[in-house]
Amino acid sequence: MPGEGTESELAQRAAAGDRAAFAVLAERHYARVHALAWRWSGARGDAEDIAQETMVKMAGAIRSFRGDCAFSTWAYRIAYTTAVDYIRSRSRVIPFAPSKMQELAESTVRDLPEDAAMNEELWRAVRALPEQQRDAVLLVYGEDMSHADAATLMACSEKTVSWHLHEARKRLKISLEAAI
Q: For residue 100, what are the contacts with CB-CB under 8 A and spacing of at least 6?
């Protein structure tokens, strides 16, 4: 059956040309790709464009998947580069005016509308950070990745990711304190 098998088995079959296996993998990963795209873009339409473009790129590149890493890592790398390229091509500067600092890791849905609005303002502030700081924050806090996984995607060391996070926290603190 097309939907049966481990992710690794499905990826091997998809790389060999099994379209049904690729369809299963794409369906399994679409929500996570879309979530990454939304965090990077902050707009539903842009997130949908990024997610769709990612799926098209994955479909075009699946035959080159060698299994050197987990399929999810391979797919995430494509989603990450697609989102970054999309944002760069749009040359968007996203303004922000948050009223107070919150923990970045508290990015789940809130019970109160005010909390959701404040959370959205914080993510807008994150998207306005310099590129590498933004990427580090979005990967570690937004996507719940380890520093090592973020470093792999960003093609840098774990220490560099930590440094970017440190600098991002300093910038956010200054920006948020100035807005209060």
A: 118, 176, 180
Residue 66 tokens, joined: 């060698």
The model's pTM is 0.63
Lookup: tokens for 132: 């590498």
- The letter for the amino acid at 106 is E
Domain count, the chain: 2
* Residue 134: domain span: 95-180
Q: How would DSSP label each residue in 58-85?
A: HHHHGGG--SSS-HHHHHHHHHHHHHHH
Query: In the predicted model, is pLDDT for residue 96 greater than 60?
Result: no
Contact 90, 46 (CB under 8 A): yes
| Residues 77 and 134 placed together within one structural domain of the fold | no
